Amino acid sequence: MTIKYDIERIKSIIDDICSITDMSICLSDTKYNEIYSHETQNDTFCHMITNTKVGELKCNHSDRAMLERCTKEKRPVS
């Protein structure tokens, strides 16, 4: 089954959320391919974590685990 995304609408929504929260967001498809990413300059939380190699690896591992859980459960999870 092929899923078509309204990329311009997705970008607009993500950009708005990032502007409001000052946090970065990356959206991936079910095969873990990046669809869109918006990184904010003031996202101090993410910048502090990914400033070290260990932090960056743990962050990537956490993201991958969440994507796998969403795929397994076929729904958004938190």
For this entry, give a set of tags.
two-stranded antiparallel sheet, 78 residues, mainly alpha, globular, 3 helices
- Morphology call: globular
The rounded Rg comes to 14 Å
Largest sheet geometry: 2 strands, antiparallel
What's the count of strands?
2
Number of helices: 3
Strand numbers in spatial order across the main sheet: 1-2
- Strand residue content: 5-15%
CA distance, first residue to last residue: 25 Å
Description of the molecule:
This protein is mainly alpha-helical. The protein has three helices and two strands; from the N terminus they run αββαα. The model has no long low-confidence stretch (mean pLDDT 88).
Summarize the entry for a quick read.
By secondary structure, the chain is mainly alpha-helical. It has helices at 7-21, 44-50, 53-73; strands at 25-28, 34-38.
Walk me through the topology.
Blueprint: H1 7-21, E1 25-28, E2 34-38, H2 44-50, H3 53-73
